[in-house]
Design goal:
This protein is an alpha+beta fold. It is built from one helix and ten strands; from the N terminus they run ββββββαββββ.
Length: 159
């Protein structure tokens, strides 16, 4: 009986198969320097939003454009944690705090959890969700539109 209400999978030539689940279209995406991560795309029951699909196709190039800002934002997020841990103001993390001496060191330490291409403030945006070893309590969200950096959100959830 419930099969009658199931949304058909969506097949895209470069993004592969997307399935509708929990209000979004879900699949996977691979790109250099990050690997394969879950992909979450806005859309309706009829199919993924065509503009969101274009954002997903452009993701590797867009990520290359925002990488410098992302590295800097991650470094600025790391610095207060390192300082507070060193001074004893924060409890030591389960694992030793990694040594980060410049923004270039940050991307090798983060673990991508998902990429969501969803509406943000009335416009489509991409949010890459990362776990970072210096902030065990929060998942960070790198938000951008196309190749334009928006912000690093200090606490986000995968939709």
């Amino acid at each position: 009986m419930f099969g009658l209400f199931r949304t058909e999978d969506f097949h895209h030539p470069s993004l592969g198969t997307l399935q509708r689940s929990r209000g979004y279209w879900r699949g996977q995406i691979s790109f250099p320097g990050v690997g394969t991560v879950p992909l979450i795309i806005d859309g309706t029951r009829k199919g993924p939003d065509s503009h969101a699909l274009q954002h997903a196709i452009n993701l590797p190039l867009d990520f290359a454009h925002i990488a410098p800002q992302l590295k800097q934002a991650l470094y600025e997020h790391y610095e207060p944690y390192a300082e507070a841990t060193t001074k004893g103001h924060l409890a030591a993390p389960r694992e030793p705090l990694p040594q980060v001496s410049c923004p270039e060191d940050t991307l090798r330490l983060v673990v991508p959890e998902a990429v969501a291409i969803i509406e943000l403030d009335g416009e489509l945006a991409t949010e890459m969700c990362f776990y970072v070893p210096w902030d065990e309590e929060h998942m960070l969200g790198a938000r951008f539109r196309g190749g334009q950096w928006i912000e690093l959100c200090g606490s986000t959830l995968v939709p």
